[in-house]
Amino acid sequence: MNANAPKTSGMKTPTTALSHHTTDAIFYREKNLVEDILKPGSSPDFVSEAMAHILGREISGGERRVMNAILITMMEHGLTPSAIATRSIYMSAPENLQGAVAAGLMAVGSQFVGTVENNARLLDKIVAAPEGGQRALAEEIVADHKARRAHLPGFGHHLHRPDDPRAIRLLEIGAENGLAGRHVAALGLLAQVVDEKAGKHITINATGAVSALLGEMGIPVELMRGFSVLGRTAGLVAHIAEEQQRPAGRFIWDLVDNTIPYEA
Questions:
Q1: pLDDT, tens digit, 9 for 90 and up, residues 154-166
Q2: Using 50, 70 and 90 to split pLDDT, how confident is the model at 110?
Q3: Residue 11: what pLDDT?
Q4: DSSP character for 16?
Q5: Are 236 and 105 spatial neighbours (Cβ–Cβ below 8 Å)?
Q6: What is the helix, strand, coil percentage profile of the chain, to 5?
Q7: Any idea where the domains of the chain sit in the sequence?
Q8: The CATH number of 116-222 is which of 1.10.230.10, 3.40.50.1010, 1.20.1530.20, 1.10.287.1490?
């Protein structure tokens, strides 16, 4: 017996509910790809099928419309760290498009793009609190971040002020499609407290709105960043397409090299 072989004796055999196949069919969960999803006369919708595949349930028309708006919003925001990483890696290895996209997706984290989940955890706490204690909890959250001089996720933006137009429209789309419940109310309460403590209006940014809407759809916090990844992937492919026609990677490299001096 190979001493390095995985030790599976006595372990329960894992299973999957995502896909299976026969000699003449492939199934996405219980739906036949060709006969159910791609059948003649159908209008397959990527967002609906992707969410059903991820969540294990069919989504409503309102959820589909809101998720489309979210993914489009997350797709692009210029030459941010993720786009710069993708362009730089593509310049270095143009034969590896997927590697360049992957490099950009590695930048979807707790500071950029993936910040949705940071705000969502706070909203979940407020939603779970007794109704009479929600405001006190919101005040505690704001006070804690202020005492630690920590940025409150979901609020403020270095470009968009006094309001982030993306957040305003996303919340409007949510309301238009029946997604304006407890998580959106929690975001509004937190925003009210933020403004009061700051003595001025602080914008709700796009990630704040997205986290509230994903919460309304019952998407677990631990999966939310995945939807940021889905949206940003399309944007990064677009950056590669532009890099092929209007290269910027070498310019970015030279700019950094010539701007940051050596200092021992």
A1: 997 667 678 899 9
A2: confident
A3: 83
A4: -
A5: yes
A6: 60, 5, 35
A7: 74-109+223-259, 116-222
A8: 1.10.230.10
